[in-house]
Here is the input.
Amino acid sequence: MQARQRASSAPAPATPAAWSFYFPDSAYVAQDRRALLITELLGALQSEEGWNIVKNLQSVQQEYVLQLDYQQLLQICDSPDLAAALEMQPLEGLACLQAAVHEAVFHVHKQRTAILPAAAEGPAKLAVQLTNYTPSEMHIRQLKSSSIGKLSTLRGTVTRMSHVRPLIVDMTFTCNKCGNSVEASMPDGRFTPPTRCTAEGCKGRSFTPERSTARCIDWQKLRLQELLGADQQAQGKVPRSVEVELKQNLVGSCVVGDVVTVLGLVKVLATGDSKPSGPPGIKNKAAKQNLFLIYLDALSVVNSKRAVKPSQLQQLQQQAEGGATDERVLQEQLQLQRQLTAAAPNMPDFTLKDLQFILTFTEAYEGDQLRQLVAALCPTIY
Here is the structure.
């Protein structure tokens, strides 16, 4: 009896600071599956190997972004719960992963994070861009209705891209009956006013939107076409393509002609087209069936033209230490490569050969680079 009383009088576990960022509508319960998964992931990210993963945090367009390699994460935390969550409830699993990374960056490794230039603005919501998630890899022509709501990794060529547009996220509405302000979210940018007033004793269902309170993010759409020869069973067939939506820091991460690997959530969008539900040739007044278009809501984009990989940086570092090439040139290459990897995703892409040419060109025409470039653009005019 006394042991039971002591157990009941034990203090409840403190709510993680990251919980309110990623689960604002749910109360924290220590035995909740999400809380257990966050605790398991945080235990792995507390180690030195975990710090090597989270220290790559970047600040892109006033937002914290961490590009996380799934295979690298499995080496320190092979959690069956995380794998099941990403397969069955991908958004919930990603939110748990983001909450664990948030706790590791801003609380567990607080002293180390304080010296990172990318984290100078203090704790805030961050986005984890999951890459190298092999369980979701498939060809574009394999997208079917069974893929809706699940993660999918597609690789292809960007053939079309729209302009950057604002996408509404949420907006405040005013109840026409009592004047109470109600905030409503806009899933996928669809105008969705509240259904009823949240004020006590008010049953108002008519609202006026306060358009000045609308919060928007950057949005862009591209068309991804499968690579020729990627699927041996599709030889000689017309290449398939799929629409991909980019948001926030992913906007501008690629251009037309780039070969990219996109990880995203498969969704559907009503096309507005319809067909009769009855047999052909018979005039049928029955209800029509709407047709839908499958598209990908991107969560991460890896551009194959992005110059630097960690293995390339390590190889350059080994060459510099071994003295295989001019040490000054290699150090300048390493510095430029690190700057490019930490830059925004819409920065120009450079290969190692491009960087070597830039260094050689600068040394040969120092102080006269502009005139040489202008003359090279159209020598018949200039």
